[in-house]
Amino acid sequence: MPLDTSAYSLALLRVDGRRWNELRRIHAQIRTQAAADGSSYLEMGHTKVMCVVTGPSEPGPKRGGMTGGVGGGGGERSSTADVSVSVVIAGFSSVDRKRRGRGDKRTLELQSTISSALAASLHTHLHPNSTIAISLHVLSQDGSLLAALINAATLACIDAGIPMTDYVVACTAGSTSTYAANDEGADPLLDMNHQEEQELPSLTVATLGSSDRVAVLVCESRVQVSRLEGMLAVGVDGCKQVREILDRVVREKGRRMIQEGTIEKGMSLDDMDID
Amino acid sequence: MASLKRSFDSDPLAANISSKVYVRSTKSGKVQKIVREVYLRQDIPCSSKLCKTCLATAPKTASGTPIPPVLSNAPAGTKNFPQGHYIVPDTNAFLTAMDLFEQDSAFYDVIVLQIVLEELRNRSLPLYNRLVSLTKSEDKRFYVFFNEFRLETHIPRLEGETVNDRNDRAVRKAVAWYGEHLARTKVKTIPAVVMLSNDRDNLRKAKAEGIHACSLAEYVKQLKGGERLLDMIPETEDGDVIKEKKPGQLLYPEYFTMSKMMTGVKSGLLHQGTFNVSPYNYLEGSIRVPAFPKALLVLGRENINRAVDGDLVVVEVLPKEQWKEPSTQVIEEETIAKNENPDADEGEDVISEKERKALQEEVKRTQSKTTEGHAQPTARVVGVIKRNWRQYVGHIDQSSVSQSGQQGRKQDSVFVIPMDKKIPKIRLRTRQVAELVGKRILVTIDAWDRGSRHPTGHFIRSLGELETKAAETEALLLEYDVQYRPFPKTVLDCLPKEGHDWKVPASTDDPGWRDRQDLRDLLICSIDPIGCQDIDDALHSRPLPNGNIEAGVHIADVSHFVRPNNAMDTEASIRGTTVYLVDKRIDMLPMLLGTDLCSLKPYVERYAFSVLWELTPDADIVNMRFTKSVIKSREAFSYEQAQLKVDDASQQDDLTKSIRTLMALSRKLKQKRMDAGALSLSSPEVKVQMESETSDPIDVKTKQHLDTMSLVEEFMLLANVSVARKIYEAFPQTALLRRHGAPPKTNFDELANQLRVKKGLELNVESSRALADSLDKCVDEKEPFFNTLIRIMATRCMMAAEYFCSGTQAYPEFRHYGLASEIYTHFTSPIRRYADLVAHRQLAAAIEYEAVHPSVRSRGRLEAVCKNINVRHRNAQLAGRASIAYYVGQALRGKATEEDGFVMKIFSNGFVVLVPRFGIESLIRLRDLAEPEPVASFDAETYTLRTSGSREVAVELFQKVRVRVTDQKDETTGKRGVKMEFIRAY
Ligand SMILES: [Zn+2]
């Protein structure tokens, strides 16, 4: 087994060889499933998730497993689209291979957090009486799961062509010292992997595009208030970097689609611009 | 559908990402596959002061501080590397010879590879911790190079390559890289980069690849004075020494595999526990396991199967026909295995002829018993989960030294007899026998394989001549793991800048005065033993207008000076307690605090933490409060001075009156405790009187008990109980408390039986109250000491009190059995106990004086603190007692006195006598009675030993006897001890 997170102070290197302010490798693809309205695949390190978006569509017969609706109410007519999120965590995605049921509390919480985060950016008022169904699959987990899910959902929504204000981008931030050790010289950390999440305090932050507007802030571990500010600053900065990467992926895909003729010739790249 | 495969090729980063696969098996036996990413980079510095390239890319912390280079620009040279060198040891080098690397004389500028650190951590956590603390020491210059993260030195595992081979290759790769990298600096003399390994294969490959490599022995020989260090390299690693044993000559049964043991323990067929050796019989061990109420016995070498006291072992219960009673014989390794030859291990049976005889007698005696019910379950060790080997202090058994060893520098095998009687003799190979004979030496155990009757170890260092004060004191400190090195600079940096000139700020507007009550006008005084410098506590009392009394206990405000988690706090938490030896004190906190700034010295203002009560004249508490304060003690009394003052009716000043009031209250408090069932226990306490100039002991006196001692004790108990309630109320999960468990009734079985048989007395152990009452009734009209003797013996049946974190126990378990208190903590001695310091912080938070620091409310952290201070506390007590024993021995040196003693324990071949005047106990064996050894008959039912033949004596338990006490040096073992000769029975 490799060293634990306490070895950071020896040479300012994290358990996987990163420095404090480095993201893991992010690999993203959009339109991975041609048949879907929108789809994406995203890796942040070894955390791997897939997303499929259906809609906006007229609410048909109730789909099973879709929960976490924000905006419109169940069967009633509403003025905004209903964003419903489902997260399925594959049993093989984590080391202990534990299967999580439908009603798993943690999964429910993820769903509702993602749903409210996206509702902040999606122009749901343009699609009254309809549903946007976001279905997420977790294939592999290595920390920063919520952040990866939010990023994948954003990409899939863009692919589905749903109007939105800006990217909702997320990443995690942590600190190199535990709560109890309370080392005042602790460095903040960007993008936590699983081992770091287990051993150190961490938070997930999502911002709206490259602005400093925070859409999601989740902190489930104990940490001194004095360290929170530094962690948050690093997290927000990380979100900006993530946005750059996702934006590059979207533009690259757009360019390729034009080349391949998937999109009508008359359309220019600028028409696709969502900035 | 688009491919979801990772597209590494298109990713510019991809070339620098690798992953590692680990396989881990969990406690429940599942196997997990873990895949981890590894990001490879080129900005990991070599950390040599010679290299300018790496200086430019030195990593920085978030606040922008770069890490300075570690390795010297002019490292020391050796015979083979006169240009200077950096050392790169492999994992085995650290595993086998960590002591070498901790030497001051050599082993500087060491590159610790990440892969080595990882492997070491997986193999031995203590060694890993030692290595990490070396890397943090500034003068040793140990640099951790993260070779696995540097692009050039990271290597993937080849197909068919074992993990070990891959890791060895990684070490060689790193050494080669360092060589090339340093060559590029173009400085005049480039230091050599030398790999240290004891793996022949690895050395061979290194030489083939053209990199510098040495075995530990080769390397040490190149050093100046290296001969001396050679002994620290464990012998098994010295290729020539390993002897091929034929299977028929293995002396001990093979251990079970780990998985077999785990399955066995899980199914309840095998049992796991800590192995303890009987202090009277080195061939008898016991192990407490959760499955049974009483300990299982482990008898004889073969069943003990290489377990050493303290090891975590797995045992198997033996068939019923092999069950036995614990031995009634004293068996000491010194006498039975005296003449063994350390070289002649092979071919001998594991049980020597003499041992076999002793065992036969045991069997006979057990079998002669008609009552079968007496036999106790026995077990044999089938495997060791975790060794608890440490460094041992001992001396070379003179009789094991051969003539040739005395003269030449040839390597020779000798036996080392550890000071701790529970540890077996250790076989040591050394080249310096002649120098080491007659010295106290520090050794460690390396291995105990099936073919060797005794464990093998290696020499670490010499503490000095046997019996010299310096050597014996250091031996004691090492044996009880007391941290006695001077405080490091980082700790001293935490002290107030003003040093001894620090004063309570004159202005009450100073932040130091925030929320402090001004108690300077109270008539406060302290009462302590003569010469006490670290004054933790002071008291006062004054009458209140309503007829009640205000009493106050004021404790040094140590938590004001020692802030949580700084270097000083960390050091104190490791030390845990101040250790008091007869002529030496090893402080928990630096002197400046302990004896000056915190100490509640008279006539000066000091910060204090005060507990104030309103008590009725009957000592009932009306109310109480806690406050930080500033006090000014009027006088520092010794117990004796205070006693004289109280007893002198002519003294009618307010201070004396207030002490008298406290005295009256303390008597009532004590009565209340006694009524609640508090125990008054005993241990033989003596005081060594020293010649003031030479500090040589001149006499030994039993401690006198004064009423003023009770006075202080009662108020401290009251303060501790009051604080315990308060912090528990504020922090139900994390209060640091102290409990004393009720002893299991079986602990008293033997004592109760002895009292019934010998004296017709009943010992009632139903409750502490009942026990206290029945102990009171244990009196012998003719012999006033008898009661104390029984109390001493009863104390040994008790459990040890322990610190704990309130969330780990149910409330009824909080009880302090000895004090008969529902809840208890330690608050009154923060200068010398870490537990009290934590209680201070918790109380300060409970009264909202300051915010709760996370370290005092993190349960995991507190549990770790409790675990450590429990051990430290126990060790401090043992070290203190051992120190007294040593000085008592010294005081008796050359004298012979006749004293009265009492028989405390009786065996079939000897008995133990306690001499109250010196607080010493010693064994008198049959063969000490007369020459030739008299024939003896032992009646276990009536605890009587009768001898006939060369001398006729009848000795029974509790009997008062007359003995001659002399000191004696055993020529074969070089050990000085008290010797008692039996004169007559009364
Ligand atoms: Zn360099």
Automatic annotation (TrEMBL), chain A:
SUPFAM superfamilies: Ribonuclease PH domain 2-like, Ribosomal protein S5 domain 2-like. Residues 55-79 are annotated as: Disordered. Pfam families: RNase_PH, RNase_PH_C. Keywords: Ribonucleoprotein, Ribosomal protein. Residues 62-76 have a biased composition (Gly residues). Residues 22-163, 166-237 form the Exoribonuclease phosphorolytic domain. It comes from the Eukaryota. One of its GO terms (cellular component) is nuclear exosome (RNase complex). The keyword Transport does not apply. GO terms for molecular function: RNA binding. GO terms for biological process: nuclear mRNA surveillance; poly(A)-dependent snoRNA 3'-end processing; rRNA catabolic process; U4 snRNA 3'-end processing. Belongs to the RNase PH family. This is Ribosomal protein S5 domain 2-like protein.
UniProtKB/TrEMBL annotation, chain B:
Its cofactor is Mg(2+). GO terms for molecular function: 3'-5'-RNA exonuclease activity; endonuclease activity; RNA binding. Signal peptide: none annotated. PROSITE patterns: RIBONUCLEASE_II (PS01175). The keyword rRNA processing applies. It comes from the Eukaryota. Residues 516-849 form the RNB domain. Coiled coil: none annotated. It holds the Pfam family OB_Dis3. Its main location: cytoplasm. It is found in: Cytoplasm; Nucleus, Nucleolus. Keywords: Cytoplasm, Endonuclease, Exonuclease, Exosome, Hydrolase, Nuclease, Nucleus, RNA-binding, rRNA processing. One of its GO terms (biological process) is rRNA catabolic process. The keyword rRNA processing applies. Residues 85-204 form the PIN domain. One of its GO terms (cellular component) is nuclear exosome (RNase complex). Belongs to the RNR ribonuclease family. This is Chromosome disjunction protein 3. It comes from Echria macrotheca.
